[in-house]
# Entry
Amino acid sequence: MKVRESGMPAQDQWEAFFDPEQILDELGLTSACADVIEFGCGYGTFTLPAAARISGTLHAFDVEPEMLAAAAARAVECRLPNIKFTLRDFVANGSGLPDSGIDYAMVFNILHCERPVELLREIWRNLAAGGTLAIVHWNHDDETPRGPPLAIRPRPEQCSQWAEAAGFVPAGTVRNLPPHHYGMTLRKPDLG
Ligand SMILES: C[S@@+](CC[C@H](N)C(=O)[O-])C[C@H]1O[C@@H](n2cnc3c(N)ncnc32)[C@H](O)[C@@H]1O
# Structure
């Protein structure tokens, strides 16, 4: 099931809201990461710069064929062969990837979904012990030119509560990502 309020405006309008390189820096995505998963890749706004910095494969999922095709065409243009694009409803079907094989998960502008803790549990399953969950979402308290309705738009504290309910522990402070977003990271604990 497509996440409520997850439709996209035109690409240039969407991409004016972000500085993806700066956001990925803030959220600690470096070449030390091998395999990455992205839930809802959209136009590939974050997929492409993320794939360019990691040493492994970026598994990008989207339920909309047009989104996936647009992002995949950009990956070819940018010569980024380490992205595996998959047309899949991750709400209904999860990622289909094996347990514990992923270092870093990107959950950007999608955590206003209907059952966030269920999605976060699937991400917890995907991540290796010590792996990072990165969340980006629209600010709640500012006037924003887009974003889901405030009634379903989570604040950072709400995201933390959901992530902790799914088994994650906080890893760092909430980041302000101007002009309209915040970001945060949590970790799957390494119990070994
Ligand atoms: C608001 S956009 C965000 C895209 C990207 N994460 C970004 O921040 O640029 C959400 C994306 O998630 C996709 N999506 C929504 N529900 C989905 C589902 N159930 N399974 C896979 N993709 C989904 C939408 O098609 C859309 O491309």
User: Anything to note?
Assistant: The pocket of S-adenosylmethionine is lined by residues 1-3, 6, 8, 40-42, 45-46, 61-64, 67, 89-91, 108-110 (CB under 6 Å). The first strand starts at residue 36 and ends at 39. The helical segments are 11-15, 20-26, 47-53, 65-77, 90-93, 116-126, 156-165.
